[in-house]
Amino acid sequence: MLAALLLAGCADDAPQALGTLEYDRIALPAPSAERIVSVDVREGDRVKAGATLMTLEPTRIAAQTDALRAQTDQQREVLAELEAGTRDEQIDQARARVANAQAVARDARAYLARVQPLGQRRLVAAAEVDRARAAAESADASVGTAQAALDELEHGARRERIAQAQAAVRASEAQTAAQAVTLDKLKIVAPRAGRIDSLPYELGDQAPVGAPLAILLIGDAPYARVYVPEPIRARVKIGDAASVHVDGRDAVLRGRVRAIRSEPSFTPYYALSGKDAARLSYLAEIVIEGGADLPAGLPVRVDFAAAKR
């Protein structure tokens, strides 16, 4: 009887931490505020990576994607036109305009040459001479304008304009690619194998952008997330063995510390016990052997036998 009491006392004094069973969780957010048109899974189902979970209505996003593709095609044609240069027909038209302007200029200069002597002899009004002079100067300016337009066509587009057109094509292609990704994301798929923990929205709902459409539990078995009391923190290390007691299950499971936080936090209400209530604790994760059939959320108690020194 005395030995049993001693063993019980040792068990009670063993360093322990309280917490719950947890799985790694993945939340799949809504890529766009579209109506849910199909739900292919139920809560609790196990799914493989790449399995379709639900589908959002694609009509609006598909139309926007088509519009961006058409805009990209237009930008490509503009670039092709600049790179191809001016057509021969346009150059011929420009040369004809230069020849016409030169003919008008010759006629204007000839008229001015006839009028100037008459004006000097006061046989015509001075205003007529001025009009003839202005017409000749205007005709010469028209020749310069037509010749400059011809030179521009013959030299083709500037390399800066071509570079701008190339940049516009790249920007349009990038926008189209981004929109195509959004269109593909309207089919919600599982990024990893796991179990459906929650489907917050139903068929026909329209979730806001970023709202979780599905929550996956990842992993073959849960792990224990516990709060290590400050007095034994220095003696608990990654890789240490631990005994895991699951509420409602008699068998004691073996575990191993896989992570422990370096920053402390205040002990949560369910881990308060006696004088430890006012102490800080450190969040730790314990890998469990043989707990594949255990659900998440069950309370657990973890004993660190190696930490009792």
* E-strand count: 12
Tell me what portion of residues adopts beta-strand conformation: 25-35%
| Poorly predicted parts | 1-12
Q: What is the CATH superfamily label of the largest domain?
A: Efflux pump adaptor protein, beta barrel domain
Oligomer: single chain
| CATH architecture classification of the largest domain | Beta Barrel
SSE sequence, one letter per element: HEEEEHHHHEEEEEEEE
Report the major sheet. Answer: 6 strands, antiparallel, barrel
The total of helices stands at: 5
How many individual domains?
A: 2
Which structural class should the secondary elements be placed in?
A: alpha+beta
Structural summary, described in words:
- By secondary structure, this protein is of the alpha+beta class.
- The chain has two domains: 15-56 and 196-307, Elongation Factor Tu (Ef-tu), domain 3 (Beta Barrel); 68-176.
- The chain has helices spanning 2-13, 59-84, 88-120, 126-155, 159-185, and strands at residues 16-29, 36-39, 46-47, 52-56, 187-189, 194-198, 212-229, 241-246, 252-260, 265-266, 280-288, 299-303.
- Helix 2 runs antiparallel to helix 5 (159-185) and helix 3 packs antiparallel against helix 4 (126-155).
- The longest helix has 33 residues, at 88-120.
- It is rod-shaped, with a radius of gyration of 42 Å.
- Residues 1-12 have low confidence and may be disordered.
